[in-house]
Amino acid sequence: MWEDLYKQALEEGWEKLQNIPGVITGFHSTIDGLKKVDASLIEQLLKKIGTITELPEEPTSAIRKPEDLIIDLLISIREGLAYQRMIENEETFKWTLENVGYDQLRLGGTSANMANLLSPLPLKKILVYANPLTRELAELFPERDNLFILTGEDGKPVLRSPRKAWKEEGIFAIHWILEYGEGLRVDLNGFSFKSPRANRFIAAWNPVNCRLRVSEEFKRDIFLIPERFSHFLVSGFHILLERYPEGKTCEDFIIPVASFVGEMKEKLGVKVHYEFASIGSQMIRNSVVKNIFPVIDSLGLNEIEFATLLNDLGEQELAKELREGRFPIVKLVDGLIKIMKRTTLRRIQLHTLGHYISITRDKNETEERSALLFSAILAATRSLLGKYETFDDLKRGIEVPTITLTGYEGIKNIDEFGVVIVPTKVVQSPKLTVGLGDIISSSGFLLS
Ligand code: 8BR
Asked: Could you give the CA distance from residue 299 to residue 254 in angstroms, rounded to a whole number?
């Protein structure tokens, strides 16, 4: 039965995408700077800052000087843990650019990634928000006829390909992905250690995005263009800080975004999906729940983010049961119902490695099922081939076996909600797993 439903979902989804007027993604597009960290780079950096005689247990809360960056990187290497910290001042950013540099630049940020992953699909228009759009960032976007930036030409707002819309050159924001291998040896003054496993440390300088400042031009022009957009994928709250050097807090930046999203819904009639992503700070998560949840229609997350959210909402017992029981489906559904009852969300889409679950108020369970199956085909194809370009690529994804059934799959009506649980396709040796959550949630939302 599921294989037939998968085949049907592929045909239906491909067709339905062509009828969607337009999709906006915002407000976090950036450049990732990949740099391989080896013993000689560490030695070079240590020479610049002077020797380190001891390393603290935990990384610094924020990077305020070059020494903080080196210390945090070394702690990440010592533990083999993927920490991420924001760089807080421009001098340290410039120092890092000069002294660490990068081997390769790659498109980064949830909004850019979603736009990139959606662009091979037969969607008419995808408008990606990227600010500041420098030449370096613009050239990382793929060249596709359906991918646009909102920009000005002769004093008029227009949609242009990112590659034709950049205004300045240079790197003004970058997320350094400092990757190291297993067994990398670090010798400090009197002690040494080796990395227990390959991992990475991320140091990000992104003064505009980390305040989620939406440009005044975008806020004005999005309501002036004649082109129609029907869906908006909002994200980026995970790179906010709790507090800023100038004395503001995350809420000072979340409230204006929430109000702008509300305005977009009202004036453009867009449906809004928010992709939760992993937000380390409870203060930021709470502010997002309080201010953003009321203005969105749809929420997407994985099981770990979901347990954290339940915990924040006072469901500690259930969150614990989920974590300790390895996320049983029945408990996930219990949690979804609890969140639907406490919020005004119209749907929640939850993805795990073996199943996707959605819960809705909209009595559209068969569409939901088809949407989830289509998103599973995209995830399987991307894991299998590392990318997808054509309808035929997706046919390869559909051949990946659907994983063992547990008996819970299907459509259920519980209280006033429709619950859809589908078994997914899991690729045994995936070529790529980055960005899978983004593509599962965004495609599922568009087709729901
Ligand atoms: P996040 O990025 O939000 O954590 O989502 C990752 C999702 O990617 C998982 O929930 C799972 O559904 C999917 N995924 C992963 Br990870 N590995 C996969 C694989 N080998 N084949 C198919 N899907 C996979």
From this structure: 17
Query: What are the E-state strand segments in 50-146?
Result: 84-86, 104-108, 126-128
Q: Which residues contact 148 (CB under 8 A, 6 or more apart)?
A: 125, 126, 127, 128, 159, 160, 161, 162
| Amino acid occupying residue 322 | L
Q: What is the pLDDT of residues 29-58, one digit of tens each?
A: 999 999 999 999 999 999 999 878 889 999
For the record, the structure tokens of 195 come out as 């990395």
Q: Which two tokens stand for residue 405?
A: 């059934």
From 182, 110, 169, 184, select the one nearest 137 (Cα to Cα): 169
In whole angstroms, what is the distance from residue 274 CA to residue 26 CA? 10
pLDDT in tens, 236-251: 999 999 999 899 999 9
Helix/strand/coil percentages in the chain, nearest 5: 40, 20, 35
Task: Show the tokens assigned to 220.
Answer: 């004005």
Fold of 34-105+171-205: Adenosine kinase, small domain (3.30.1110)
User: How far, in Å, from the CA of 353 to the mean position of ligand 1?
Assistant: 5
pLDDT tens digits, residue range 416-439? 999 999 999 999 999 988 889 999
Assess if CATH 1.10.760.10 describes domain 2-33+106-170+207-447. no
Q: Which protein residues are within 6 Å of ligand 1, measured from CB?
A: 302, 351-353, 379-380, 383, 424, 426-427, 430, 433, 436-437
Q: What is the pLDDT of residues 341-388, one digit of tens each?
A: 999 999 999 999 999 999 999 999 999 999 999 999 999 999 999 999
Which tokens in the block code for residue 361?
Answer: 């108020």
State yes or no: pLDDT of 78 exceeds 80: yes
Q: How far is the CA of 352 from the centre of ligand 1 (A)?
A: 7
Q: How many CB atoms lie within 10 A of CB 225?
A: 16
% of the chain at pLDDT higher than 70: 100
Domain definitions of the chain by residue range: 2-33+106-170+207-447, 34-105+171-205
pLDDT tens digits along 321-334: 999 999 999 999 99
